[in-house]
User: What shape does this take?
Amino acid sequence: MTSYVIKGASVLGAAPTDLFVRDGILVDGPGSNAEVIDAGGLVALPGLVDLHTHLREPGREDAETVETGSRAAAAGGYTAVCAMANTSPVADTAGVVEQVWRLGREAGLVDVQPIGAVTVGLAGKQLAELGAMATSAAKVRIFSDDGNCVADPRLMRRALEYVKAFDGIIAQHAEEPRLTEGAQMHEGQVSTRLGLTGWPAVAEEAIIARDVLLAEHVGSRLHVCHVSTAGSVEVLRQAKARGVRVTAEVTPHHLLLTDELAASYDPVFKVNPPLRTAADVEALRSGLIEGVIDIVATDHAPHAVEDKECEWAYARPGMVGLETALPVVLSVLGEQWELIADRMSTAPARIAGLTGHGRLGAGRPASLTLVDPSARHAVDSSSFASRSRNTPYAGTVLPGRIVATFLRGQPTVLDGKATK
Assistant: This one.
């Protein structure tokens, strides 16, 4: 394995220093015949970790595969992603999660950690094989019906009780389905003006409130997917103050975009949960900075052209996000590198139990990314490594450029280009 000297990198925005990589590990000094990488002016971050990625394989390889999604992740500075269970067949058995895990290993670009379904077929009727998935080669620890809410409170309680035995996590898509039937966008002034059926904020907040009470009662771990409303932030703040074992994520698009964009009727802005108001965006930003919201997760949701380039009502919700996440967060938070590293690497790695990710230091695996903070670029979806192009940022000028990504000492991206 090649040794590297990453020369003059600014680790988390600190003074420039040299990083030494030998045998895939960060070490205190250079090895013999080390290859030098000039990192002057670049910021070194621990490799990014995404707790919410849709890789679509098996079943919708026309939209994404484990390999193309892994390439997109590496291009975005990620070294680990958690793959959601809403594939076809659903990842609700040991066999399917092991398939996804092996495909990730074969691609070798990021660590792909499968998320198992909570219920059989995501149908919300019967618990899936949680124990079998947990003891499989994939060692699943997070379970989610994302895309569907585990709406039955008794079933949700049983799931929380079951995973407590191995310190697992139930990641909830918080949406009371009886309040969102036919919903097309956020319920508010814009939906009224456009004549579109609204998705009320309370549909999210009610489920989060119920689930933190269940998690508190059981003493189990709950994770809330893609928080999108100011009210949800308040529910989470109160739950954390009581010591409930709850964590939460926000997407880059919910930190930046608002429901006003739906006025264009461009389906690229259709997402679930929907884009909310400017007041919600501000509350989400504050919650992320405060730590009420623990992490940024992309909810990378690739779709084939025919599923997005159609009438708004028929378009599938979702946006690709792996290749634009860090620039979007930079545009929102500025160069708060320690905060960014925590919310996009350290905290998600800790939540998912990915011990080989999330921190830099001697003796640690050399999984890291190098970012040029001075770069500005217009988003060009035609250059994406992802198989899909449904980005809301096409043509938008964003700060920062991923220059290099290393997975355990092996470069997956160098000078902004894939190495294999």
